[in-house]
Design goal:
The chain has helices spanning 3-14, 28-32, 109-112, and strands spanning 39-45, 52-67, 70-80, 90-97, 102-105. By secondary structure, it is α+β, with helices and mostly antiparallel strands. It has one domain: SH3 type barrels (Roll), CATH 2.30.30.
Amino acid sequence: MPKKVIKKVLKRFMSFKKTPLDEEPFGIRSMERLNIGDLVQWSELGPNGYEQEKKIGVIADLYLEQRGSRNVALARINEICKSKKNLSLLGREKEVLVVSLHVLSKVSEKNELLSV
C-alpha cells in the first residue's frame, strides 16, 4: 500500500479511539430521569444463554463508576422475585446499567416521606 493510503487509514483509525475522561459519562441522561424508589424493568439472558428474561425491581441506589477509561451510570436494584423458594418479595441486589432500564412506575414525593 502507498504511504499516503496508510497515513489516511491510521488517521481515521486514531479518530475511533476511546473517549477521554472529561466527556459526559455513559448513561448520564438516562440516570437523570430515574429516582431511588422507582419500579423498573430490564432484560437478562436466561439460563440457556439465548432467551431473554424480563426482570422487575426497585432502584436502591444510582451512581457513577469508572469502567475502562469512562464513567458509566449504574443502578443498584432490589429485584422482585416470584420464587416459592424465596419467601421475601425482594430478592438479591443487582447492579444494572441505567441505559437498559425501563420505568414502570415513578416514585412520588409523597411516597418519599414516610414516618415509622
